[in-house]
Amino acid sequence: MATQHSRSAARLMMAPAVILLLGWMLVPLTMTLLFSFKQYLPLRGGDLGWVGFDNYVRFVSSSAFWPSVVATLTIVGGVLLITIVLGVLLALLLDQPMWGQGIVRILVIAPFFVMPTVSALVWKNMFMDPVNGLFAHLWKFFGAEPVQWLSQASLESIILIVSWQWLPFATLILLTAVQSLDSEQLEAAEMDGAPKVKRFWFIILPHLSRAITVVVLIQTIFLLSIFAEIFVTTQGSFGSRTLTYLIYQRVLESQNVGLGSAGGVYAIILANIVAIFLMRIVGKNLDN
Amino acid sequence: MARSVTSRRKALNTLVAWTIGLLIFFPILWTILTSFKTEAQAISDPPVFLFFDWTLENYAVVQERSNYMRFLWNSVIIAGGSTILGIIIAIPAAWSMAFVPSRRTKDILLWMLSTKMLPAVGVLYPIYLIFIQFGLLDNRFGLVVVLMLINLPIIVWMLYTYFKEIPGEILEAARMDGASLKEEILYVLTPMAIPGIASTILLNFILAWNEAFWTLNLTAVNAAPLTAFIASYSSPEGLFFAKLSAASTMAIAPILILGWFSQKQLVRGLTFGAVK
User: Are A37 and A52 in contact (CB under 8 A)?
Assistant: First the structure.
């Protein structure tokens, strides 16, 4: 039983972490909120006073807003689709008996450890370069015209790069879930003559549903704020300007802090909607 | 009942899995190979795979031209410093949550996690302003603090799950024998939790090493780590594939090796116990 003494000690021990995180959350958040109601142009007059909800209205009604929402949703949706579908298939494959399983696992996980600026630059130059990239060589080999990947198919290219980075994460978590599957149930179904597709659809997939939900939620939170991959490839041009990148440009490139902060508040609200669902699942697990 | 597997089936699994594994790994392999080519061979058509004149020249050029060691050192300081600082702050917090739980423990844990969900771009300008105000822009200490704060929730969370597995009776016995709280944590809990603490350090070192929002936006020259160094290659000048590959290989090699050790902890560290 915890004594009164250890309770107050515990509070003291928790204090540094709690106070630091509280400060880290509240101070910048309050500032962003304040800026978002101001006309604030650091290079052109500085703080020009309160403007109410002007920035919020202007951010949403600017011509760049809706395309950025579409780009964001396309990238998040595309990456989720690719990583989940391939992740499930890969997890099932890696669960099978084979030679050198450990090495294959390492090969599959490796991209997760590559820093985002490296993977973006390597894909951009060595694979997607329209003259010297490997894809260009491959296309020419088959007699096709090389594609200008990052300008003609910018969103698809970014989805490819980001999916490559996140496939290991999805695979690893789904593999953990696959390995906890009750094999007796599967064998019973097999003996009853249930075909493979049915076994997958009615036993394996339901078992994986929670892991899939977790992967979707965690990846969504990270994917909503991808930055380096766009920063070093297209700089937001060719229709690849996501919401995060748009806010970054408003704040640091055009130094319109009020407008950018309003965008930031939208991004925070969006992330929190996803986070609520994730917290619920995590919280439920804490109870058991 | 173990399922009998024919060796033909096993061979087929092996073939398919290795093909896919190598395909996924290929961009990394290609980067490493290209780093040993001359610039002309790096873009030759058709591409050369293994039979070229292996050279270390690119590594020498990258080091000479950009002072690679300085960026590497910055990465080590920033990733290492933020991880160590985070661990020092997180161990007492995780101790109290795991061994002296109260009604609010769960809420505090979840709240900590929720700070991790805050989109960085939403607080970019405030942090930027604070950094200018305190002279922290392009300063390693500033980045150590920021990266410590963004990873602190994961560190606390991971330590908490590891500490939970240690029976509380052992700590209580130490207390009975007259150990102070400091001694209890430092000499009883910490040695028992070494494997957990080590994997927490490992994973968070990797996450901090690869962090590429704050490191790109808050550094210029002096404090720039490898993420920023690599980003400086995004404007090409002449033939540069081989040099880009050499720089990339040097930036990812240490982490790839550490990553292999940490793959088992990855799931625990990044799903917050939601997948077991």
Answer: yes
